[in-house]
Design goal:
The protein is an alpha/beta fold. Helices cover 34% and strands 22% of the residues. It has six helices and seven strands; from the N terminus they run αβββααβαβαββα. The protein has a five-stranded mixed beta sheet. It has a two-stranded antiparallel ribbon with strand order 1-2. It is globular and about 35 Å long. The protein starts with a helix and ends with a helix.
């Protein structure tokens, strides 16, 4: 009987999450507050969290990251939905040894994404945000406090729903 109740609870949770309910639970957070500065792909220094944003959505990707190939374009397609909630989407290209900003630009272009991004060449942003694996998406409030960390398999809709 307890097994049937547990199964029913899991099914109802899955249905509510898939029907515009609450976003899935957050993945474990290793940083309680995030703040750093990185160069953009055009060389300008950008401070995170972004000034004037009610929330900053950080999406960490790598040029050779296979899951990033679908996640980044899906999130980029929801940029207007995020903006409507006062959030700004910031793509962060995490470059491995031997990778360049041009490699990240080419990867984004091949994924159909034409957007500026921050360049994390030495892992500063990744470390400050507590990111362990790519892709990784984190929602910060205006002060830089971590509000949500996307669990594996979170969709772009889940990210939008997680913005406070």
């Amino acid at each position: 009987m307890a097994s049937r109740a547990l199964t029913l609870a899991l099914v109802l949770t899955a249905l509510s999450a898939g029907c515009g309910g609450a976003p899935p639970p957050s993945a474990p957070v290793t940083a309680k507050s995030v703040g750093f500065a990185l160069p953009s792909d055009d060389g300008a220094l950008v401070t995170v969290p972004l000034a004037g944003a009610r929330a900053t959505v950080l999406d960490f990707f790598g040029p050779t990251c296979v899951p990033c190939k679908t996640k980044v374009p899906a999130l980029e397609a929801r940029r207007a939905d995020l903006a409507a909630k006062g959030a700004k989407l910031v793509l962060v290209g995490v470059l491995a040894d031997g990778e360049s900003t041009d490699d990240a630009k080419r990867a984004l272009a091949s994924w159909g994404v034409k957007a500026p991004f921050l360049v994390d060449r030495d892992g500063t942003g990744k470390r400050e945000a507590g990111v362990v694996t790519l892709p990784a998406t984190i929602v910060l409030d205006a002060s830089g406090a971590v509000k949500w960390v996307a669990p594996p398999g979170a969709s772009a809709a889940d990210v939008v729903a997680a913005v406070p």
